[in-house]
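Appendix B, record 7
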Amino acid sequence: NCGGSFADHCGDCPQGHGKPWCNGDCRWVEGACVAKETAPATPFGFLAGQASTAAHAVENMFGFGGSSQGQQGSRPRAPEGFQHPSSPLGRMETTTVAPTTTQADTTTPMPPRDPFKCPGAIKVEGYGPVELINARWNVPGERARIVDVRNEEVVPHMSGRSYFADACSSGPYDNKDYVAWKLLGKTLKYTTDISGAGCGCNAALYMTSLHQSSNKSKCHDHYCDANSVCGEACAEIDLQEANNVAWHSTVHVFNDGGGLGGGFGGGGNGWSGPRDWAAQEFRPGSDCVDTSKPFQVAVSFPVDGSGKLEAMSVVLSQEGHECELSTCVKNYGFKGRDGMQELTKALREGMTPIISYWSSDILIGMDGQGPDHKGPCLKDDPDACADTVKFYDFSITDIPAGQPTCRKQCSSNYDSCQDTGCCNAKDRRCFEKDDSWASCKAECEPGIDPLEPAEQRSPWTCKLLGDQTPLPPFMRHGSHHHRGQHREEGHHEKASAKCSQFGDNCKTTGCCADSDRQCFEKDETFASCRTSCVPGIDEHEDKAFQSPWSCRLVTERQATFSNDIWGGLPEDKAASPYKDSSYELMTKSAEMSGSSGFWQPPLAASASAMVGALAVLAIA
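Structure tokens (predicted):
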């Protein structure tokens, strides 16, 4: 009870109206609404930060540096059995604080935990338990939402941000509570699930020098980053700023908002973002990293003989997939300064991991197509972002001796591997076709490949480039990748003959001849081969054809099943590049049944059989 209104948490009570909306079961403390039973005896009473629009905050964040912002507090006494920071990562030996045994217990009780600020703890292998401390302010004047801890998973809600800490309690924020991880010469691994975060969403895990930030900041929790979002600047390392089609890993010295990064996606006026892999390798349904499912991230900080940071190396992988994606950021300088040396100092002193989740309709710099049109998103749709994402299974290990500073940048199954001589997919080798093209394939036979499109047929030399190690037999499953082609052995002739071309209706085939494209549904009668799709009106279509796209993926299995039941679409619609928006499976009066208005398939199924078939189709 907020006092006249209700909410899940007291932190949701003010709804932008501040202290007057915080009554009932709640009270106003330290510029925030908290439950009465968790509020300290005396309010700290600071004023809320200056107002700032979300759009202005996003502008400050571009360059894909720390998307974020925060609050303030007193350091609590260590709870019984708490493990304090110990050596290489900043922790000391375990200390147990035992209660004193006196005739009367005069120990000052610890303030109760604030469930919004202190959502729980996770275990980090190689470090120990880590508390999460939630920010109350996303940017000055804009409330942050909660970040939950559920079964060892960190689950940020949209507009939530949380800091890794050694301790958390009610009361003011204290920068010394935040962990100071010293990751030089180490690898941080974790799993993330960003399946519901599409174009316009940013699920971020990054580190800043938060532990050393003594000023409260405009967000009242000592928050700092390279963009001074809350008024305080500090070094920042973005391990992940990503959604299910784009990924950025970026390093920043304390006042370089743009930084230097790698990954895939984005672009702006006259520039394209990093292209360290192909769009087809990182997206929902990919055979490399399928972002509709959780995947693993490993971020390493190798050092040279003097202990100086050499690079930030990032590797993405997924259980069950013989493919890894990697990017490596090194040789970073800013305005004549040695960025790697400055970041060495920050990492040596210890940095604090931060998790945040936010959205914007102007994230094209992160996930847009760019002028090369290779990026994933035509436009951003923040309203379609899932409410939560997940991070879990954290661990810290030493970098094995002899591990190279950076993984070699290899080629996707969709590009020529002639310059790299290696493939991202472990079940491929780079085979030469001629002096202008080579491709990642499981096996290769010299001469003409009859499975190539006719206009591309010329002899293959099948000379192995790069890794000369033959694939083991179980990996030779016969996948072939040609320019604009991706087929599995046993389906080549069938797929080549029936997959749809760009501009055709792929509703009845469920596949595209161009492997750069997927079959996206517009409505129940039309689908098209596209590189990406945003639900709603496509303003690039001719106005005569502008009607909403559902953007559901159509697969070969669904198309085959649908054709078996319905007999396919009328020929005049199956091949047309655009659909008449008034066409609703009811074109021929001779094929209309009763007053229902539904076009009847040639098999003339009974009404009950059709209902049953549709139910099965819906389940499939």
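Remarks on this record: Residues 39-88, 91-104, 474-497, 560-620 have pLDDT under 50 and may be disordered. The radius of gyration is 28 Å.
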